[in-house]
Amino acid sequence: MPVDIAANIAVIRERIAAACACAGRDPASVTLMAVSKFQPPESVSAALDAGITCFGESRVQEAKTKIPLCPGRARWQMIGHLQSNKCRDAVALFGMIQSVDSLALAQELNKQCEKAAKTLPILLEVNVAGEASKFGYAPARVLAEFAELSRLPRLEVHGLMTIAPYSPVPERVRPVFRRLRDLRAECEQILGAPLPQLSMGMSGDYEIAIEEGSTLVRIGTALFGERPKRTAEAAGE
Ligand SMILES: *Cc1c(COP(=O)(O)O)cnc(C)c1O
User: Fold this and answer.
1) What is the pLDDT of residue 237?
2) Any idea what the Cα angle at residue 40 is, between residues 201 and 112, rounded to 5°?
3) Which residue, among 142, 120, 224, 124, has the nearest Cα to 190 in the 3D structure?
4) Is the CB of 220 under 6 A from ligand 1?
5) Are 43 and 36 in contact (CB under 8 A)?
């Protein structure tokens, strides 16, 4: 049976609304991002037709070939690890980079934005659980570098992002989401201004993330179905 993307989106929206009701939040305060990595342009079009406008990609090369094949009203954000030599392309392709994980990378993005005469919203990716297999700032380091990051003239830090460890019991990762929210509060103290975005929650754990304050959930599998397997493995996912 082909995947019914519109039906999946309807289910996810209902579950987002239920989690928001639980937490006393307005469902409009949570953006549903469709994570379209490894998915073809036809799937992006189907999600657009079902009302999604925000799409996440994890590799610059894939985005570079896919984005021109998708309807122009799609909005794209980078959610995967970014290498310095891809910053120029990334600045041209994406409206936001969620995966900034070092000052050096931020400085390179700032430089490319300057050349392109652009300002770029970013999120700082935090490896809250300290998993060796994942990218992202250590919590102490994001606090140490935050002041300097926030002064880069071409970048606007909008908040934090995290990928929680996988658990068959999503409740177990609640402390990770809570920690990211607390870290945001500490960054806000340093900045002396609010940081609107907390990007947290994926297919397996988005309801818990919403209860803990997520403003953007990044959903791939629950929305598009399983990612095409061989491609995913070849990319070292
Ligand atoms: C792949 C990916 C997702 C989506 O994961 P699902 O479990 O398929 O929903 C979310 N965030 C990031 C950073 C990813 O790389």
Assistant:
1) 46
2) 70
3) 142
4) yes
5) yes
**pLDDT digit string, tens, across residues 54-105:** 999 999 999 999 999 999 999 999 999 999 999 999 999 999 999 999 999 9
Q: Which of 9, 35, 124 to mutate to test the pocket of ligand 1 (most atoms within 8 A of CB)?
A: 35
Instruction: Report the distance separating Cα 88 and Cα 176, nearest Å.
Output: 32
Pocket test for ligand 1, best of 11, 16, 38, 58 (most atoms within 8 A of CB): 58
Whether the CB-CB separation of 137 and 175 falls below 8 Å is answered with no
Q: Give the number of other CB atoms < 10 A from CB of residue 168.
A: 6
pLDDT at 101: 98
Closest C-alpha among 93, 92, 100, 84 to residue 66? 93
Q: For residue 237, give the nearest of 85, 40, 37, 3 by alpha carbon.
A: 37
Rounded distance between C-alpha atoms, residue 146 and residue 159, angstroms: 11
**Domains in the chain, ordered, with CATH?**
5-221 (3.20.20.10)
Low-confidence ranges of the chain (pLDDT < 70): 1, 230-237
Rg (CA), the chain: 17
Residue pair 38/59 in contact (Cβ under 8 Å)? The answer is no
